[in-house]
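User: Could you check the structure of this?
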Amino acid sequence: MGKHATKTSIRKVLISAVMLVTALSLSLSISISTYLDVKEQKKLIVNKLQMIAEIIAFNAQITLIFDDRKTEEKRLKSFNKVELVKNIHIYAIDDVTNKPVFFTSYNASKTPPVPLKVNEIETLKKPKVSTDYVELIIPVEYEGKIEGYVYVRGGLERLSQYINQKILVDIALTLIVLILVLFVARAIQKRIANPIDSLSLLLQDVSKNHNYSARATKSDIEEVNMLANNLNIMLARTQNQLARHQADKLEIKQLNQNLEEKVNQRTIALREANQELLNTLERMHQYQNQIVENEKMASLGQMVAGVAHEVNTPIGLGVTGSTLLRDKLADINAAFEQKTLTSKQLERFIHDGIENLDLIYRNLNRAAELISSFKKVAVSQDVEVSSEVNINKLFSAIISSMRAEIDIKNVTWQLSCPEQLTVRTKAGLLQQVFEQLLSNSLIHGFLDLKDNQISIHVEQRSQSLEIIYTDNGVGVSNAIKKRIFDPFVTTKRGEGGSGLGMHLVYNLITQALGGTITLSDDNKKGTEFIITLPLKGVI
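Assistant: Sure, the predicted structure tokens are below.
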């Protein structure tokens, strides 16, 4: 058996899950929104800078043609009111070398000049965006001829300020939303956890004070009501059983007293011997009652622990799904009231809602199946009529019906049974038994896909039918060997195992079929079950 899992509670899990999902959702949403917003702002800045460069290029056509530097310098000084523009260079085409040369420039206030970019004209024709600046170069054309180039360098200080302000606002909004979600989660967890706490307190009272007259009250949660009703039925049956036991005890005591009086009347010589015998018998009854009581309480505690563990898991997942659906519904409602609801939001909400409802359905259905399995163990299986059954054909049919699961685990099997062996038994119940044994081997016994073997040996004796079922899997842990047929005993807790399979097998064989089943200790590797069934007739 593995290490025990860390203990937790529905309250902590619910609040932690809601807060974690909300924080992750907000962080992801804000990160994506900020990224897209910054990207769009940078695009707008680049477009604005391109438009300014085009205006400068248009105005510079004449000044470049007539080599009028003073006019162009005066014109460029007008950009001192444009906060975005930091540096402007205008390059003219040299008539001799036909290469761009410096013509004039502009530097904003408190902005140092930048080196000439005549060697980067081809590179900067596509805008270059860095952490702090945006640079670009466009040609100055006049009647289809390039007269020069305009280089513009813009600053991104305002964009950085905008990003910092947006981050502060997003952090504040996230904290407010998390506080609101915490209050909502606390309200929901109180509604879910309080009925379960009530059941827990009731069981503690029954366990500590033997108060079997106590009854669980109804709640507004259907699954908890089902659990409470079954618990009330169990407590009522236990109370009736104890009352009958007490009555039987009083009757036996009265009979013993009458017997003592008769013996005393008949012979005084045997009084001391009879008295000692009665005292011994009384002590034996007391020890017997104590053992029965201890066994009942141990079985009750184990059963309650198993029921609580198995039912808590699907209920917790269902609560998580309903909380997520409620949060998404609140978002859609807020968008609808603010008239900002889009078709994409609605489509995403419908998709997420279907997924959450599927999650809730699956887990509620899982809880219902667990309750159904629990009822199935308690209900008598002695309703099938005995019929003539060919044992060899029955086992072959069982193996054929489970062929897909057997092939997945790469299992080889061997059936040793006389072909003509026909007995009168309950075929359906026997089929359930061996289907459960095969499933246990496939799920619990075989952990890999190598050399997996299953053997079934059937032998007819004078008054019984002996069946030996063997696999070469990992075997049964020593910790649960003595409790393997008890309810809710499993090594796959949290992985789909309910712990009712071998208990059902035991009930079917011992009660419905009237036989016995034991786990062999002689098998060194794997698991071996020895089943003995009484023969009602052999054909």
